[in-house]
Structure prediction request, 284 residues.
Amino acid sequence: MKIKKRYRILLIILAAIVLLTAAAVVYLHGEWWYPVVSAMRITPELKLEIADGATEDWTLDELLADGRVTLSNNLLLVNASHPLPKGYEATLVEYNGAKMHPLMLDPYISLRDDVQAKTDVRIYVASDYRTPEEQAAILTQEGNTTAAQVGCSEHEAGLALDVYAPYCGGINFLRSPAGRMVNEICGEYGFILRYPKGKEDLTGIDYEPWHIRYVGQPHAKLIMEHGLTLEEYLDTLEVGTWYVCGEYRFARLSPDAIKVPEGFTQCDISPDNMGYYVVTVRFG
Ligand SMILES: [Zn+2]
Prediction:
């Protein structure tokens, strides 16, 4: 009897060791479990609130000449069927050797610092702005399910960054708590995960948890909170309708029918690469 009891205890201890080791191995492999866990998350359907209030008529030229208005490309759709406009010249700023659109520099630094504060791990830029020649070289190297065709990459627009944590690049970015944190909070800083898992048929690109794209607010929060792609998000914006989200109002407008809420203090305009402009305003 005594021997049997001892065996039982030994078996329990062994089973506990096996279970704990398995749990530790799985935990250390975030690239296995994180995509599964995040795909199981239920995201609410996007229901935008329509804004009321008076609007004024503008021409595009008048609006662009107004001192409160900034023209950027933060909502420019770039994919295989929407290449960059001919003659597109990326507006760039350089930081620590990485070139990116000036609008996203401060948000990137804030995201990086917040990720470091939360995880004790610093993230770095692996790939930033690319010339068409650099995109062609990457396409040859990686193939067309991971790399976009020349002229169809957000990297050529200067609006995307591939980020990594030390010893954790590519899909292994998710092994690092910093990689998982970037995936969790990038929306708060104006970035989206441009190539989410399960949406490969919509984006045409494999799951890339390391590729972040700047779209600004409130768009990034809305896209990330509702688990959307940029393609799906732009599709939900009915042309000519003004929506309200917190302190922002925004609309997707035809360039020949521009109506903007009266009394705005700040206005961002971005072409969507589909013939329309997304106009985002703030007050006060
Ligand atoms: Zn990328």
About this structure: The chain has a mean pLDDT of 94. The radius of gyration is 23 Å.
